[in-house]
Amino acid sequence: MSDDQSFSEDESFSESGRLLESGDEAGTAPDDRRYRPDVEGMRALAIILVVLFHYGVPWLKGGFIGVDVFFVISGFVITGLLLRERQATGTNSLISFYARRCRRILPAATLVIIATVFVTYFLIGIGPGRVAASDGRWAAVFLANVHTSPLSSLGNFWSLAVEEQFYLVFPLLFLFANRSTGRIPPRMRTAVVLGTVIIASYWLSIVQTSSNEGWAYVSPFTCAWELALGSLIALETPMLRRVNVRFGAALTWAGLTVILYSAVAFTSLRNFPGSEVALPVVGAAAIIAGGATAPRFGVEALLGIAPFQWIGKRSYSLYLWHWPVLIVAAMYLGGFHGRWIVRPVLVLGVVALSMGTYRIVENPIRHSRLTSKQSVLLGGALVATTVIVLSLLLA
């Protein structure tokens, strides 16, 4: 995401749709810095872990925890946007919220879904193409966590489904907590709501992992606490800003250490998410919380360097492309056994596709001056078109 920090508080929301002029790159509460290089760098760290894990790097058996890091970041960014909107306008608009989601998520996702299905049809065959088309319809309506075929080329869309399912409910909870009357301040009411979600969802993660590990991994109910924890950090920014700077720096390094330990020590064979998911999630939360103090010698000294910032800006497109490219290539080649060079070449291909998607589709539409209604209509049209086209292919 872009590091544009030039807009003022009065200019933060456009007249027509009250959309952030710079898209969603601020992603911080009003009391925080407008741009957090450490958070952008965390996106890079998360996608690097996920890609290296999926592409078979042997010493990153737990690289899948990068998705959990993404969840914490997402909750932090979304809540920061809601708080900034409320400060700038005195209220929150549901249509503006969903307009931002439509512009941010749908254009690039639609491109990847359609491209994956058609490439599968032409390179692999009608049978696999039909499977991809079926999975594509579920992915298009953000239900990939509910239905997907084994080793689906669009299987990575499950995490997008979890996020969007959470964001169907979260803005309503945020509005409820801020509009309720009473002696308790809105910030405290919101913190209580988020705290309740965190406790209940984490408890469910532990309980459900023991009975149905597969569903526990992709369920919005067991993942909700990760997004809610990021939200709580954004909400409590004023308190976090008063933390001792040295303690904040130490907290960020501790968080990074825990994340890297999880990526190396965890394996897909252990009970996950369960209780152990708390390690990478709390680690991500520690980096964001400690970074609120803007420590000079914190993790930002590492995550703020140019390569991490570059990757972080393109992390969404990288995440969308990395799995379809891997699975389609594996089907086409019949696996990678004895072809050690294939996976590095595929990674380069993923980077190239991501660069093009970011520059031509993702960023221009995210920064476009469409009104909220136009953005929602665009999102609806993209979803409907995808479902119709893939249904015609199946028919």
How would you describe what is shown here?
With 395 residues, the chain is mostly helical. It is 70% helix and 0% strand. It has 16 helices and no strands. α1 (37-54) packs parallel to α14 (315-333) and α5 runs antiparallel to α6 (186-211). The model is unreliable at 1-24 (pLDDT under 50).
Key words describing this protein structure:
single chain, 395 residues, mainly alpha, 70% helix
Low-pLDDT windows of residues = 1-24
- Number-wise, the strands total 0
Q: How much helix, percentage-wise, in residues? A: 55-70%
- Percent of residues in beta strands? under 5%
As a whole number of angstroms, the C-alpha radius of gyration is: 20 Å
| Biggest β-sheet strands, sense, barrel | none
Provide the residue-averaged pLDDT.
90
Shape: globular
H/E element sequence: HHHHHHHHHHHHHHHH
Figure out the total of helices: 16
Structural class by SSE content: mainly alpha
First CA to last CA: what distance?
39 Å
Entry summary:
70% of the residues lie in helices and 0% in strands.
Please describe the topology of this protein.
Layout lengths: L36 H18 L11 H24 L4 H30 L2 H15 L17 H22 L6 H26 L1 H6 L1 H16 L1 H4 L4 H21 L12 H14 L8 H4 L2 H8 L1 H19 L8 H25 L5 H23 L1
Helix pairs in contact: 1-2, 1-13, 1-14, 2-8, 2-11, 3-4, 3-14, 3-15, 3-16, 4-16, 5-6, 5-8, 6-8, 8-11, 10-11, 14-15
